[in-house]
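User: Here's a structure from my thesis project, written as structure tokens. My advisor, Dr. K., wants to see whether a designed sequence matches the one we expressed. Can you design one independently, without my sequence as a hint?
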């Protein structure tokens, strides 16, 4: 069968720290040519005139919760991956705290099987660590699995790894990249009991960042980093939320050489504790959204490269669940559809360059996880591409939200930038708010020795 050929012309191509005007030729799944000008050499070529739109590599989201299996009333791999490609995210890495948990090889492969049949975006999964599954961890193939996820706080089921000896043994034994959720459980429990005694179940949401405090985050992050330094493990700290934690990370060496890296999420860059009065439990996350000062310090660390990656921690719950009182309202919210538009809005506000957005959402996740042939616009790479119109405003509302849960913390927000086209493995899967060929996704592979 002859491979399909697509020619994208007249785009502002954003790649590797530069923006240049040019054309892209896609043949089959791959980028065949990147040049100032490419001519269609036959009538079989499908030409798309970008008309000066910006062409970005597809974003790689290194932390999502798509809730399948077991929690499909909130989301499915099918529903959330479609929302992702509408938001310019062409690859995702999903977390292990589903039901059942992804803590055995059999359960991991069951999730890969679901994704192979239903995902619209390229996919991989984290394997979950517990206090008693080291034998299973050692079976994981590092070429075919994104990495290992450890909950050092705020876990579900039995996934809290709180046995110090076990934790050190895992760090010493695995060559997998270890991603961690860092909040100190003892500190949180003490704070929670104090506010529960004072208010009962209906604790005002504004106290969430005091319960899940800066101290809880820093204590856990610093311990994880010390253990990584002691054992030589490759450590990636998820969703930093405090300014104090940013001091634990370095920008003195290139990302490819770092053994300890960090991520920040959209909500911690956008919201602050001043938004709790308006948004309530809709912006209840773990770790909590904290102060304006914390948010500013996170931006500083992101821009000076102490923080390496921007992700979503997409974690949908039903609106009914989120509408409960504090103690019964779950933490987490949906973000994959709106993450890239939110960052482009920050570009419009002068906060970050488009080149830096691409670095943190496309290039760096590919480098950090050693994803094969993705994250860049390069000849020979998979054609995961996103066309963006920077001047095509739209407002988030119930009618255009694609998450299965049907709500967004960005409802009512007007974004000036719009994703107009998304390509996954060379297939045009999304164009002008319509899904086209949504079965082009592939399992991510990893270039690791």
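Assistant: Designed independently from the structure alone:
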């Amino acid at each position: 069968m002859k491979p399909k050929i697509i020619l994208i012309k007249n785009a502002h191509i954003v790649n590797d720290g530069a923006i240049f005007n040019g054309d892209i030729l896609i043949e089959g799944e791959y980028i065949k040519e990147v040049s100032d000008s490419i001519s269609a050499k036959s009538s079989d070529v499908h030409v798309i005139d970008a008309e000066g739109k910006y062409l970005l590599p597809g974003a790689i989201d290194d932390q999502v919760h798509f809730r399948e299996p077991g929690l499909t009333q909130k989301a499915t791999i099918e529903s959330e991956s479609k929302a992702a490609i509408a938001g310019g995210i062409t690859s995702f890495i999903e977390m292990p705290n589903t039901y059942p948990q992804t803590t055995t090889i059999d359960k991991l492969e069951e999730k890969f099987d679901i994704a192979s049949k239903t995902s619209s975006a390229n996919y991989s999964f984290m394997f979950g660590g517990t206090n008693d599954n080291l034998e299973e961890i050692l079976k994981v193939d590092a070429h075919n699995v994104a990495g290992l996820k450890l909950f050092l706080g705020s876990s579900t089921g039995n996934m809290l790894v709180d046995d110090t000896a076990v934790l050190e043994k895992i760090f010493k034994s695995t060559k997998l990249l270890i991603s961690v959720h860092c909040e100190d459980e003892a500190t949180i429990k003490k704070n929670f009991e104090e506010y529960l005694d004072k208010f009962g179940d209906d604790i005002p949401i504004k106290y969430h960042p005091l319960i899940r405090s800066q101290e809880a985050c820093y204590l856990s992050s610093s311990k994880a980093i010390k253990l990584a330094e002691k054992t030589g493990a490759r450590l990636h700290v998820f969703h930093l939320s405090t300014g104090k934690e940013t001091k634990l990370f370095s920008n003195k060496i290139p990302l490819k050489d770092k053994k300890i890296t960090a991520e920040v999420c959209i909500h911690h860059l956008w919201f602050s504790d001043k938004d709790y009065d308006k948004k309530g439990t809709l912006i209840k996350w773990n770790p909590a959204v904290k102060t304006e000062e914390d948010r500013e310090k996170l931006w500083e660390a992101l821009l000076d490269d102490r923080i390496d990656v921007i992700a979503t921690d997409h974690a949908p719950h039903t609106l009914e669940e989120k509408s409960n009182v504090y103690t019964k309202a779950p933490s987490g919210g949906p973000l994959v559809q709106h993450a890239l538009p939110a960052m482009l809005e920050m570009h419009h506000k002068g906060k970050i360059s488009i080149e830096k957005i691409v670095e943190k959402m496309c290039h760096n996740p590919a480098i950090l996880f050693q994803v094969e042939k993705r994250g860049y616009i390069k000849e020979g790479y998979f054609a995961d591409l996103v066309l963006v119109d920077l001047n095509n405003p739209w407002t988030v509302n119930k009618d255009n939200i694609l998450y299965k849960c049907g709500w967004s913390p960005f409802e009512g927000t007007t974004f000036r930038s719009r994703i107009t086209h998304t390509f996954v493995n060379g297939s045009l899967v999304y164009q002008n708010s319509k899904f086209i060929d949504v079965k082009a996704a592939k399992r991510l592979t990893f270039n690791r020795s």
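When you compare it with your expressed construct, this may help: The domain at 73-369 is CATH 3.20.20.140 (TIM Barrel).
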